[in-house]
Amino acid sequence: GENVEQHPSTLSVQEGDSAVIKCTYSDSASNYFPWYKQELGKGPQLIIDIRSNVGEKKDQRIAVTLNKTAKHFSLHITETQPEDSAVYFCAASKSGTYKYIFGTGTRLKVLA
Amino acid sequence: KAGVTQTPRYLIKTRGQQVTLSCSPISGHRSVSWYQQTPGQGLQFLFEYFSETQRNKGNFPGRFSGRQFSNSRSEMNVSTLELGDSALYLCASSLDAGGNSPLHFGNGTRLTVT
Lengths: 112, 114
Known about the structure:
The structure holds 2 protein chains of 2 kinds.
Chain A lengths: L3 E4 L2 E5 L4 E7 L6 E7 L6 E7 L4 E4 L2 E6 L4 E6 L8 E7 L8 E2 L3 E6 L1
Parallel strand pairs in A: 2-11
Antiparallel strand pairs in A: 1-3, 3-8, 4-5, 4-9, 6-7, 7-8, 9-10, 9-11
Chain B lengths: L4 E3 L2 E4 L5 E6 L6 E8 L3 E9 L2 E5 L6 E5 L5 E5 L8 E8 L9 E2 L3 E5 L1
Parallel strand pairs in B: 2-11
Antiparallel strand pairs in B: 1-3, 3-8, 4-5, 4-9, 5-6, 7-8, 9-10, 9-11
């Protein structure tokens, strides 16, 4: 069945270092890959997304890369700050299904 | 523009009871989805509605149902509650129902079944 694997489950980095979270999807027809940040007591918030016709997208300190052949996509956060501490979820969806398959989440801790 | 609003924020129910959760989407968004979030299973898709029609349903028992009104507001209902239904229920809205437009989540309803 459809599945998205996400690694690592927890990640601790020093403030100013980079953080990388990786996801692998099973359905090769998936064509949209968003990343969400969830803070305590709140719902997930979209931070960046990428579509299957693009290999990389960047927004300030955040970037996402997509390798369709390997069915991998990754989130890169540079110059991490304490406010980046949260749980991050990757997801995959394909047109016409109206649903997202989410990864299991990565708890990122940025140590000051 | 106001975000997705979910009510109530917290609910405590007893096994066997039923519960109704409410969601108001972002103005102009016609697609509303529901997800169940638990520590063990993560975010699981429940169902999606567009223009009052259910377009897709996840692998949940028939005790879980939903509906969407003409103003795009949505409700979900869980009947005959079980302890395992304790979870954060998240509603999300999006501009279209193509399955690949960004979801905007509310802050959820925390349901505890005792």
